[in-house]
Amino acid sequence: MPMQKPPRLATGTLAFFLDFDGTLVPFDKPDESVPLVDDGLRSLLTELRNRSDGALAIISGRSIEVIDELFEPLKLAAAGEHGAEWRFTPHAHREQIIAPPGLVTAHASCEQFANRTLGVRFERKALSMVLHFHRHPELRDAAAKAAEAGCLPDSGVRVMHARGMVEVKPVDASKGHAINRFMQAFPFTRRKPVFIGDDVTDEDGFIAVNALDGVSIKVGAGNSHARYRLPDEDAVREWLESLLD
Ligand SMILES: [Mg+2]
Fold first, then answer.
1. Is 19 one of the catalytic residues?
2. By Cβ atoms counted within 10 A, which residue in 18, 59, 95, 228 is the most buried?
3. pLDDT at 233 over 60
């Protein structure tokens, strides 16, 4: 299990990929509360982006639309819905993968399960969906089963586990795919990727970054493919701030 704090690095050659919930802001129940993006976080990310010539992106399960609302007025490069949509620069057009046909069947299965199960809330996004059960962790197995039942073979969708949630998303959407896509685009290409995340959905990103000889950083406890670890989101901010000294 990697335990060491990441080293200090020179920002000039880095590309930053940052998860949002549980990494830059405290993890709360994402379907019930709105995380606060403070001015300190806005200026930290702005400064890091300037130092790395624009190579900084938010890589989140949330949609880019919601990320924009949370960071307003700051706009950032971003991948949303676990990489199903992306924007390489802050003011570029949003691009997305082609929606797989299996989303329709999965939608029906997940929504029916949520309707008949107290403690589960269904959230539909443009290219994915979520069963939230943050107060009822005992519902994970049933939620996963309902989601799996909606993911037919060759339907182009799969189930993914996250903190307090089960998600259904396109097989082509992962944080690893997202980071690899950014690493082929200006201004990210030829830089050393740094990815920081806290959840099981971030593991694909850690694997991708390790393969590129980058810096993978897990936030909090739990097994991980990441090479480094920071205890919480305050430590993430402290470490990022230390790179600006
Ligand atoms: Mg997270």
1. yes
2. 59
3. yes
d(CA 39, CA 132): 29
Q: For residue 34, what pLDDT is reported? A: 83
First to last CA, the chain: 29
pLDDT recorded at residue 1: 52
* Catalytic hit among 19, 21, 198, 199: 19
Question: Which CATH number does 103-170 carry?
Answer: 3.30.70.1020
Residues near 15 by beta carbon (within 8 Å), at least 6 away in sequence: 52, 55, 56, 57, 182, 183, 188, 191, 192, 193, 194
**CATH 3.40.50.1000 in the chain, residues?**
13-96+173-242
62 CA to centre of ligand 1 in angstroms: 10
Pair of tokens at residue 103: 């989303």
pLDDT above 70 covers a percentage of the chain that reads: 98
Ligand 1 center to 196 CA (angstroms): 9
Residues forming CATH 3.30.70.1020 domain(s) in the chain: 103-170
**8 A C-beta contact, residue 86 and residue 65:** no
- Verdict on whether the full-model pTM lies above 0.85: yes
Q: What was the pLDDT predicted at 12?
A: 86
